[in-house]
Amino acid sequence: MLAITNLHKSFGDIRAVGGVSFGVERGQLVGLLGPNGAGKTTTVSMIAGLVRPDRGAVTIGGAAVSGDSDPVKRRLGLVPQDLALYDELTARANLRLFGSLYGLSGAALDQAIDSTLRLVGLADRAGDRVKTFSGGMKRRLNLAAGLLHDPDILLLDEPTVGVDPQSRNAIFENLEQLKSRGKALLYTTHYMEEAERLADRIVIMDHGQLLADDTLSRLRARVPAGADGRVSLETLFLNLTGRSLRD
Amino acid sequence: MGLAAFLALVRKDLQLFFSDRRAVILTLALPIAIASFFGSLFGGSGESSSEPAKIPIAVVDRDGSAISKQVVAGIQADRSLATSTPRFEDARSAVQKGDVAVAVIVPPGFGDAAGRAFVARGARPQVDLLFDPSRSAELAMVRGVLIGHVMEAVGNEVFNGAQGRTIVSESLSQLDASGMPGEARETLRDLLLSIQRMNEQSNASGGGSGGGLAVPYEVKEDAVAAGGNAQYNGYAHSFAGMGIQFLLFAAIELGMGILLERELGIWKRFRSAPLSRFTLLAARGASGTIITLLTLVVSFAFAMIVFGVRIHGSVLGFAAVAVACSIMAAAFGLLVAAFGKTVAATRRVASFAVLIMVMLGGAWVPSFVFPAWLQRITIVIPARWAVDGLDAMTWRGLGIGAALMPTVVLLGFAVLFAALTVARFRWEEA
What we know:
The structure holds two protein chains of two kinds. By secondary structure, chain A is of the alpha/beta class. Helix content of chain A is 34%, strand content 24%.
């Protein structure tokens, strides 16, 4: 569904991403992991069309994105790390705007808003201003805004930062539901337990390079088990990326 | 999809604008409040009930002669002056405190000396003018007014008064010792004798009708402003100036909105959607134009209802200038977003730029009071064209032809700002 081939991107003399390739299939959630400055966000930005790659290609269902207004971008949904919402508008007004950007209108838009709000558990707060929402509710609405237009591929950039366990669990359930509907999900996170719970495949990046791309069980097989006979993803991650602090 | 998205983005901006009622009230009320204040300073609505401002002066008569009393009476009756008569000791402090602009000190012996200087080239007496250095323009006006009243008082007394008779008699008796050439002396003698006869006739008939000197003309004031018989309305200029200022402030908020959307990550959503760059910028430009035009329209509507401001020129021309102003302002807002980095820093710089722009554009005080060199260089300031264009259509009462150049120039600025925006806008969202 989503194929990234040999992506390169530099900012001045700094190479942010250097030759990264991986894919995400339909009904699959790929966890994209890496320490700060690894190149995860730049990679997601290139996939979403926010940053133009220096080299390489991003294809969606086999079609390359050819420009800002290419309709193929409709198959992509982005859930940014920031709470990208208008606090002064209601939840419905926010979703109405973001749905309109993807060509939704009239009854179809209303229906999409209602079903998406139901999915994230905010149907009863549709008419309330976002500034009255808790952090967890805003996160769920942030997710709703990304999947309102029913994209085939959802890019999630640390979508659970700063939320309580209940909201996080609700988001996980939403994602599992979307995966079961055949959506392709690319999920960046710093929380290893989230990747362990959700990801069908793990991609680990550092210094703009791809260090690993495999299923969790195969990745675990690469390192020796601990005293309890288990290999944690965090141990694997630290083995691959090192223990030096990143700023 | 492009048009629907465009309209959705415009609607969103309008929703956001109107969702903050306090900001809406401030955006619309502030220009009205400030323009009302400036308008009252610059001549108000020009109605007959509003008296022109008078220059406060003090007059001290240390002479007490018939001539000096007439001078003081003339000054007190002058409708351009607000005259007080403090004691000599208090006159200087009244100027120092700023209570009066000028203090006129008429010295002892003024009447006699002025009369002699008038009829026989005697030594001229000195009148002291104590003035506030911050009000030197008013000093010049008082000096001119004083000349008229002194000439009238001295002339009247010489031709009609007892003091005048004495002065003329003394001048005649001293004529032989004056050292004047013979022919000139005899001519002056004839003149003085004639004056003496007129004075005696005037005295015999009860006084006051013998003649004298007076300002030899009357003034008919006719303000050449709007067409027809319309009066100048100072509020028309102040509302144009303040309207432009706050329209540009509203445009800054447009730019701030884009920078805030970047900071919030909302711009990432826009860029990931299938939208052209043109749609994204044009939508902001359109909503900015609507909001800035609204501030201008509300300001002028208030001025029309409350202060009787009228479009004495072309209504179509007024609309063209107003719309061109708003488009220029919206493009300026986009330019702010293109060059700005953070919301806080950009707001400070942009606000400073707007204040300079409107100050040089004649929004605070009309540009005709600027020095000639400043008037020439401020044609590169869009606010100058905006204010001049609105002035032309309101109180100057000019036709649509006078709106053409400001409209074209303002649209030219809009194109320039838009081109710079496209060239400098940061599209990548890493």
